[in-house]
Specification:
Layout lengths: L2 H31 L7 H19 L2 H25 L4 H23 L14 E2 L9 H5 L1 E2 L1 H19 L1 H11 L1 H6 L4 H27 L11 H11 L4 H23 L6 H5 L1 H11 L22
Antiparallel strand pairs: 1-2
Amino acid sequence: MDNLTFFSDYLVASLRLTVPLAFAALGGLYSERSGVLNIALEGMLLTGAFTSAVATFYTGNVWVGIFAALIAGVLVGLLHAFLCVTLRVDQLVSGLAINLVASGMTSFLARLVFRGGSTQRLPGIEAIVIPGLANIPLLGSLLFQQDILAYLLIILVIISTYILFRTSFGLTLRAVGEHPQAAKTAGISVESVRYSAVAIAGCLASLGGADLALVQVRFFTENMSAGKGFIAIAALIFGRWHPVGTALACLLFGATEALQLRIQALGANIPYQFLVMLPYAIAILALVGKTGKSVTPKALGLPYLPENLD
């Protein structure tokens, strides 16, 4: 294998590994811009992977699987919103609880559905090859031979940037995340905005889970999200709660994971445990090395108390 082919394959792998991270991080961006801390991204990813795998397994149709993942993601998002917004449960506790329930429930149900937990090969989402452009050296396989979810992600990053900073909904969302009391005074329903934002987060994170199950591995295994939801949170912070910055941070972590997989494949004399922890170490270093003024939404993690009109 020549160097150009090796580098091209590495870039393609980096992008593929970035997609589920970026979907989850983009979902977390909507939630946290509204002021709702979303530690539950891990559980949303896992739920999306499981429901897409089960629906695809029973129907043989990947689009039914994606639709099922979206429905499940919205339901998990609404559950998180109900706990945090309506019941005013501590947002960190709610997210951790959802993660634990998702891990336990999907593991239990997977053993029932997939014959005692064994991996069951599923139909997958094939790459869309754009004639002519796909033959361009290096860039062809990277940009013009991707699956529909990868293309959708790029579109969503652009659309999300426009929505957040160029539309009234984006302004409302950011206002609720910065000062919900002032937003309420302006006639905005803080509860409705936060419910919508967390539901969108569940929807997007579940697409990341569907990508894991139907594009990357084409089967479901227990806890297959493997901490990607937490890396997505790190990417969200590192990207300063901006769609483009967050996507680029996810690309950094995806490239790191692709690198450790290739180092293992080359048979380097390095304990694989160190290689496996490389993406998480990079996430920690990225957060430690984050410089500049923080842009954390001021109301992030704080319950909205409408009776306090200060």
